[in-house]
Amino acid sequence: MPNIYVIRKKIKKFNKSISVSGDKSISIRWVLFASLAKGISRATNLLMSDDVLASIEAIKKLGIKTEINKNECLIFGKGIEGYKYKKNITINAKNSGTLGRLILGLLVNSPHKIKIIGDKSLSKRDFKRIADPLKKFGAKIKLKKNKTLPLEIIGSKNLKPINFTEDKGSAQCKSAVIFAGMRSKGSTLIKAKKSRNHTEILCSHLKLPIEVKKQKKYDKIRINKINNFKPINYKIPSDISSSAFFITLAALTKNSILTIKKVNINNSRVGIISILKKMGVKINFKNIRIYKGEKIADIKVKSPKMLKSFNCPSKLNSSAIDEFLLIFLVAAKAKGVSFFKDLSELNQKESPRLKWGQRILNLMGVKTITTNNSIKIFGNPELNINKKIIIKNYLKDHRVFMTSVVAGLSFGGYWYIHDKNSVKTSFPNFLKIMNKFKN
Ligand code: S3P
């Protein structure tokens, strides 16, 4: 059973300091921006996961040279018009919604048809949400069943700027429209529901013509056509979403202390920290500093004596969007009933994650009441599992796998978690780091 991860024993209390790998969102954005820069960009601590490697493969298909050395990735950008659009290019975005959607925003000037394909999970996801605004710029896009991959895009020489309202809170759609706006003459205006803002931060850092007006629920973004810009050397900070697995492990393992170094704590990503603090977990940021517009810190976590239930306001949803499976585990051990709402976007991820959250909790013996966009979790501070639990057929969703590992190691039971290779998508050394916690 080589691709099954088996758990037989809980983890005992720990006091540890770790580092996790580079931020996935920033790594993919760095690859794409570097592919447009004029000159050689270098990154250290770039996440070497399948999603990022697929991004590097994608720009290579567009004629951009890259080099991966031991600690450094080099991208030889040829400027904003530097892509070589050959006939019959196919880009395989594999499992990555971020790559699949963001790159479309850059392909809006391709004179030839480009095909985008993905794996089984990505091929089930909604690409209409990004095809619709890109068509307004002047690109032609053909989707399977008018909704999914595989898709074909042909760009235009006369791209027109657009006004676009992004109301799902999707950073991928917002970013793809920013990219297309960068290629179009005139001002593109985006009214975007709050979501992660790494693309806007990188644009500002590169002094590209972007203006962002922050409002309560929406940001107003104006982007103009850009000219060539200089290469970007970047030390990628660690990923809060990867850190979250260990933060949760610390929250669920009594008398434990954990430090995670040099993590990106951008406000648009730290929803899990706000939520776990409300549930009683002690979390502090140390050594806070700003690096290229991003906030970085060491995160210190202490497990509480008792976790409290939480009625989560939906304004925290977007900044915690990739962490809800973990937050549900914490709610399972909290005293009282927790409630999470307005989460229909969770079912749009690598797997239908709201359903998987419910499934994992129910297999653990936790009572839930779920609708298509909310979940009520009846917590039990004494929860301890003694039975066999099998997790499989979850579309190889890396976060379902890693959350199940955290569940098994925190609550006990005999777990058989299939498809352990799924970690390669976002966090290839997850199990290696986790092994350090086994005592
Ligand atoms: C991401 C945006 C989010 C997130 C994904 C990464 C990004 O997706 O879930 O893991 O890097 O822009 P949506 O834009 O679909 O919300």
Structure description:
It is a single chain. By secondary structure, the chain is α/β, with parallel strands linked by helices. It folds into two domains: 4-20 and 237-437, UDP-n-acetylglucosamine1-carboxyvinyl-transferase, Chain (Alpha-beta prism), CATH 3.65.10; 24-225, UDP-n-acetylglucosamine1-carboxyvinyl-transferase, Chain. Helices cover 29% and strands 27% of the residues. It contains twelve helices and 23 strands. The protein has helices at residues 24-36, 50-61, 97-106, 128-137, 171-182, 198-205, 240-252, 271-278, 324-332, 353-363, 398-411, 430-435, and strands at 5-7, 15-18, 38-44, 65-68, 72-78, 89-92, 114-117, 140-144, 148-154, 163-166, 187-193, 210-214, 218-224, 234-235, 257-264, 282-291, 294-302, 311-312, 337-340, 367-370, 375-378, 388-391, 414-417. Helix 4 (128-137) runs parallel beside helix 5 (171-182) and helix 9 packs parallel to helix 10 (353-363). The longest helix has 14 residues, at 398-411. It is globular, with a radius of gyration of 21 Å. The mean pLDDT is 97. Shikimate-3-phosphate (S3P) binds next to helix 3 and helix 5. Shikimate-3-phosphate (S3P) is lined by residues 25, 97-98, 170-172, 175, 196, 321-322, 345.
- Computed structural class: alpha/beta
Order of strands side by side in the largest beta sheet? Answer: 2-15-17-16
Strand content: 25-35%
Shape: globular
Keywords:
about 450 residues, UDP-n-acetylglucosamine1-carboxyvinyl-transferase, Chain, 2 domains, four-stranded mixed beta sheet, binds shikimate-3-phosphate
